[in-house]
Every structure is written in C-alpha cells, then in structure tokens.
Amino acid sequence: MASLFKKKTVDDIIKEQSKELRGTQRQITRDRAALEKQEKQMEAEIKKMARSGNREACKILAKQLVQLRKQKNRTYAVSSKVTSMSTQTKVMNSQMKMAGAMSTTAKTMQAVNKKMDPQKTLKTMQDFQKENMKMGMTEEMINDTLDEIFDESGDEEESQDIVNQVLDEIGIEISGKMVRAPAAGKSLPSAASSKQATISDDEIERQLRALGVD
User: Fold this and answer.
1) Does residue 48 contact residue 106 with C-beta atoms inside 8 Å?
2) What is the Cα–Cα distance from 38 to 10, expressed in whole angstroms?
C-alpha cells in the first residue's frame, strides 16, 4: 500500500515514458506489416480484374492502392518521430544525472574547502619537503661512509694479499734460478746460460699474466 502513495521520481517517469514509446514503436511495426499484406492482396486483385477486362474495378482498386501506400509511408514517418522522442528522453535523462553528479561534487568540494586551511596545508608541504631533503642527505652520507669503510678494509686488504702472493711466487722462482746459477767471477756466462736467463724472464711474465697482474 505504501508504494501506491509513493511519489514518482524523475527516473520513474522517464522509464514509464520509454516503455510507452517502445510499445508505440511495436504497434507501428505491426500496422505496417498489415498494410503491406493488404497491398499485396490488392495488387493481386487488380491483376485479376485486368485479366477479366473490368476496367472500372481496376480504377477503383488502383485508387485504394494509392491511398494504402500513402498510409504505409506515413508509418515510417511516425516511427522516425517516435525514435527521435525516445532518443531525446534518454539524452535528457543523462543530462539530469550529470547535473546531479556535478551538484554533489560541488557540495563536497565546498565542505572540503571550509575545513582546509591553506596556510596550514602550505606549511605541511614545506615541512615535508624539508624533512625529505634531510633524509636524502643523511642516506647519501651513510652510503658514502659505508663505501669508504669497505674500500679501505676489504678491497685494500684483498689487493695487498694478491700482491704479496705474486711477489712470493716470483721470489721463489728467482731464488731457485739463482741457486743453480754459477758464482760471480768464475767464468763468463755461456750462450746456454743466457738462454736459461731469458726463459726465466718469460716464465715470470707468464706467471704474472696468469695471476692477472700486468
């Protein structure tokens, strides 16, 4: 019972109007189909009267056929008008909904602007920018300090270990060669001794290249 006395909204009215327009469109389509059926029957009757030689009947039926075709053409015009009205109704409904949405948005923006203090908001943004810059500078200083610590400890120690290892290996090889070398002043180095010294230098360079030291 409460729904019977409920006031109709704009959406309810538009829905009812759209429903009526769709019903009208279907009725027009049915009427046009009936007129097309009558048109075919009348054409067949005119042909029958013509074959029988009844010219008067043919003239009367021909006039009726002309009127029937005019009526059928009117159904197309009426159908076009109904379609236009339905489209206009939908456009008006969309515009009303858009206007309602804009009104709601405007009210929300007004409420937010009333509660928002421009000076306070500006100060908050400035404080945020200041603290963000400080955090960035602190992070950069920490990263630089960590890089210096690792460079001074890990990399330097590792480099020194490699250099010591290379020097130790070279010293061992040179000592081995020097043990087998003749004493100074006993005799001049022969060709074989010179060749052996050359091989020792090449071997030292090969070991340095193998260890990655140029």
Assistant:
1) no
2) 42
